[in-house]
Design a protein that fits this description.
single chain, paralog of FGE (formylglycine-generating enzyme), four-stranded mixed sheet, three-stranded antiparallel sheet
């Protein structure tokens, strides 16, 4: 583990004890290519993980201390969801298969909705437009690491076995919003019944049984593993860390754009991936570490 910079924040990591849990699902799910199944028993050593995603306040300290330039800044653009742009924002190129994503020059972690935006009022929100490379650089500075996918899922389950969500099987128990996802007609109208159109503070909504916040919705979170759809069928079941190589890395948890009509990946077994240098306005991360000696 790299030494921690004296300027790095104290993430007050939660301890997850060694133990077994059921990872994945045998239930039907929409995204057959994601490789959620089969449900399998996984044995993990003890580890520590942050209760919250890395905030803009914490990422700002990293950039100020190191001068790090994110991939979005190097490329000079990132993807911003169209409804977060001002009505008079100039037309920009959209992604053909997902036209709600707009290529916005000048969008980056410090300008999450484009060059006209800033972090005013967002310091306690998760840092976004963060690539896997950026997350790894932060971890090296802070003396931590990214969680493995198995570590992420066990922590996200909060001690519950084989439930759809981090709090149980019902999305809105007693009509209460438990996470920051899309409400309304995607992608044109968000009623914001949960209180947010974009990101929410990193500690919004009740924590799960282990004390983790926002493991469903808000922002996608990077894991250390390379993504593969069926490596886990024959791979190790003790402290799995994914395949030895790949083309993209695992992301978990879904985001504020997830909606049952399009992307219900806020379920705790759901998974997706992205390239190591990719960034979007709904991509962040949380950190982990080995047990204290």
């Amino acid at each position: 583990m790299p030494s921690r910079s004296t300027a790095a924040p104290d993430h007050r990591l939660l301890t997850i004890p060694a133990g077994r849990f059921t990872m994945g699902t045998d239930e039907e799910y929409r995204w057959k290519g994601d490789g959620e199944s089969p449900a399998r028993e996984i044995e993990l050593s003890g580890y520590r993980i942050a209760p919250c995603a890395v905030s803009n306040r914490e990422f700002s300290a990293f950039v100020e201390d190191t001068g790090h330039m994110t991939d979005a800044e190097r490329f000079e653009w990132s993807f911003v969801f169209h409804l977060l742009l001002p009505d008079d924002f100039p037309e920009t190129r959209a992604v053909a298969a997902t036209p709600w994503w707009r290529q916005v020059f000048g969008a980056d972690w410090a300008h999450p909705a484009g060059p006209q935006s800033d972090l005013d009022g967002l310091l306690d929100h998760p840092a976004v437009h963060i690539s896997w490379n950026d997350a790894m650089a932060y971890c090296a500075w802070a003396g931590v690491r990214l969680p493995t996918e198995a570590e992420w899922e066990r922590a996200a389950r909060g001690g519950l076995e084989s439930r759809r969500f981090a709090w149980g099987d019902e999305l809105m128990p007693d009509g209460t919003a438990m996470c920051n996802i899309w409400e309304g007609q995607f992608p044109t109208e968000n009623t914001a019944e949960d209180g947010y159109v974009g990101t929410a503070p990193v500690d919004a909504f009740p924590p799960n049984g282990f004390g983790l916040y926002n493991v469903a919705g808000n922002v996608w979170e990077w894991c250390s593993d390379w993504f593969h759809t069926d490596f886990h069928r024959t791979g190790p079941t003790t402290d799995p860390a994914g395949p030895p190589a790949g083309e993209a890395h695992v992301i978990r948890g879904g985001s504020y754009l997830c909606h049952d009509s399009y992307c219900d990946r806020y379920r705790v077994s759901a998974r997706s991936s992205n390239a190591a240098d990719s960034s979007t306005g709904n991509m962040g991360f949380r950190v982990a570490a080995s047990p204290e000696r």
